Amino acid sequence: MSNLIDIQSQIEKLQKQANEIKAKEFNSTVQDILAKMQAFGITVKDLQNAKPAKGSKAIRGKKPAAVAKTEKTSKKAGVAVAAKYRGPNGETWSGRGLTPKWLSSLIAQGQSKESFAINAQ
């Protein structure tokens, strides 16, 4: 059975091999992409404006920050949940799940949760 030092040495060697393979294949991959872009008339602007395909692993579950802040949805029902609390810097919380840090810190400072209720303002 190998000891920790042997395993770490193997990991290091494999990591070096992976980096070498990546470096060797990088230029050919870039050339392949450029050739396809020319064949289809694709520009860098097209790539920047392109919407990712559904189910793409690279972006699955990620939303732009602006959308993520304003959009609160219930995963179970797929229905938007209105924010019930708003912080001094515009943060919002629907009242579901764990209390967010911004509200927890304000409560710890002696303020009440109800003072941040949206309908009370």
From TrEMBL:
Superkingdom of the source species: Bacteria
Keywords: Cytoplasm, DNA-binding
All copies of domain DNA-binding protein H-NS-like C-terminal, residue ranges: 75-118
Protein family according to the UniProt entry: Belongs to the histone-like protein H-NS family.
Protein name as catalogued: H-NS histone family protein
Localisation per UniProt entry: Cytoplasm, Nucleoid
Species of origin: Rhodoferax mekongensis
N-terminal signal peptide: none
Statement: the UniProt record of this protein carries the keyword Cytoplasm: yes
Keyword DNA-binding among record annotations: yes
Region (Disordered): 51-71
